[in-house]
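Appendix B, example 12.
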Amino acid sequence: MNEFVLAGDLGGTNLRIAAVDRSGRILCRFEASTPRYVDESKIVESAVGLARSIRRKMGSDALAFGFAIPAIMNSAEGKIFTSPNLPELNGADLGRRLSEELGLGVLLENDANAAAVGENWLGAAKGSSSSICITLGTGVGGGIILNGKVLQGPDGTAGEIGHVCVDPAGPPCGCGSNGCLEQFASATAIVRMASELIADFPDSRISSMDEFDASMIFGLGLEGDALCLEVFRRAGEYLGIAAAGLINLLNPEIIAIGGGAANGWELFIGPMRTEIVKRAFQQPAERARIVRASLGADAGIVGAAFLAFEKIGLARASRIR
């Protein structure tokens, strides 16, 4: 029987837990809707239930449990500060509760950091020692790998790329600031910008719709709808502003773009690269490859698995590469 760890990925909609071996191969997985409650107890209950289902299917116990969660947190201490999309986790001692229920060592990690680790281990950034992963979803997340290690900072909150200010006069953000990248490049932002532009593009097909989402805007953009093209041009421009700053600051080898809203790649990558050329130093800008993330929805699970193996000293190397 293969040695394996449990690797989980918690989102606002779904909770997924998998058994993953030391090569990063997913052996089996179970999924449930993310339960909502006044505190973390229902999430703990659901995660424990999925973990026990894996135990029964595998016929043996896992070595550890790595769990990617959408929260600002200190993973070294297992301390959750805030979780904007799952406020029931605010201040929760989630790692301890899961460890007590399952009898396993539990490592919690921010979901975007876990995705960055996954892409660096087995995905689009494989083989690089310095990479950045930007995830475009309901919000914008980020994870930074420097010299083969996740950049966490003393409070464990480094890598919040979605809350880099790209327009001080921009719209308010849920973090309390204004003009954050999240307000221009997330799926939510794409819908908001399209709504704001309807008056300027009366011939757009969007103007006749009562409801629309980011995927519909992308589809119409591919068909040449001027409003939709403008929305993704703006998203790409602001992504480029943020990426140029990251390139100048951190000199990464690769910036991988993932998440559901990254499906708009064809429409935003041109403006993004144009902005990088305008704003970043030439040599690091030429070095940094801007690529699509390759692990899709499994990036967080793969990264959480690596971190779990690392926690118990069974990762293949101290560096992710």
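The first helix runs from residue 41 to 58. Residues 137 and 259 are 5 Å apart (CA to CA).
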